[in-house]
Design brief:
Order of helices and strands: HHHHHHHHH
CATH topology of the largest domain: Tetracycline Repressor, domain 2
CATH class of the largest domain: Mainly Alpha
CATH architecture of the largest domain: Orthogonal Bundle
InterPro entries: Homeodomain-like_sf, HTH-type_TetR-like_transc_reg, HTH_TetR, Tet_transcr_reg_TetR-rel_C_sf, TetR_C
Protein name: TetR/AcrR family transcriptional regulator
Keywords: DNA-binding, Transcription, Transcription regulation
Number of helices: 9
Helix content: 55-70%
CATH superfamily of the largest domain: Tetracycline Repressor, domain 2
Shape: elongated
Strand content: under 5%
Number of domains: 2
Structural class: mainly alpha
Largest sheet: none
Radius of gyration: 19 Å
Oligomer: single chain
Pfam family, one: TetR_N
Length: 201
């Protein structure tokens, strides 16, 4: 079984200093193609190179294969793992939910919607995607565990189930942002408060 690429792996060591502008252009080109409805299978290195305005060799010097490039583009879409302040469980959860709703790409929702079926079709992409999101989920688990230890949350709280209760609605609202009766402003606060009504000590 082929080992799946994860973000930051399967990159080729460059023979010259990295060009941050070229890196950004290449990753944005991948995200643009996904937002246009291209499947992972249909995206080619040639198409990415043309859209980014670089040569194919520039891409191959940085990424060993297309899957590794796709996963790094997803990591760029998500942005850096947020660091909660640690002052209160509620504030930290709100910060994390908001961070998951603020992608760097202008077509964040379209890219995410396009990736969903790819995760079911391509095991390598699924494993790589999980490697991208797991550090973010672990930060949220840490907040919940800290809340249990501090007494802010119930001692018998199911951390994994609570995590899903926070992540699931947020993902759906990202995919369908114009749902009636769901507030666009203050969504993160409303979601966290709803979950905490059952999770609080």
């Amino acid at each position: 079984m082929t080992t799946a690429p994860v973000a930051g792996q399967d990159r080729k060591a460059p023979g010259r200093p990295r060009n941050a502008h070229a890196d950004s252009a290449i990753l944005d080109a991948v995200l643009d193609l996904l937002s246009e409805g291209q499947t992972v299978a249909a995206i080619s290195i040639e198409a990415v190179a043309a859209k980014a305005g670089v040569g194919k060799a520039t891409i191959y010097r940085r990424w060993a294969n297309k899957e590794a490039l796709i996963i790094d583009a997803v990591a760029a879409l998500k942005g850096p793992v947020p660091e909660p302040a640690g002052e209160s469980v509620r504030d930290d959860l709100v910060t994390l939910i908001k961070a998951n709703r603020s992608g760097r790409h202008h077509s964040y929702t379209k890219v995410t919607a396009c990736l969903m079926p790819e995760l079911l079709r391509d095991e390598q992409i699924m494993i790589g995607y999980q490697a991208v999101i797991e550090p973010r989920r672990e930060v949220m688990r840490g907040v919940l565990r800290r809340g249990i230890e501090s007494g802010e949350l119930r001692a018998d709280l199911d951390v994994e189930l609570t995590l899903l209760m926070l992540v699931g609605p947020n993902m759906l609202n990202n995919l369908f942002p114009n749902q009636p009766r769901v507030p666009r402003e203050g969504f993160a606060e409303s979601l966290v408060d709803a979950v905490l009504r059952g999770a609080a000590a």
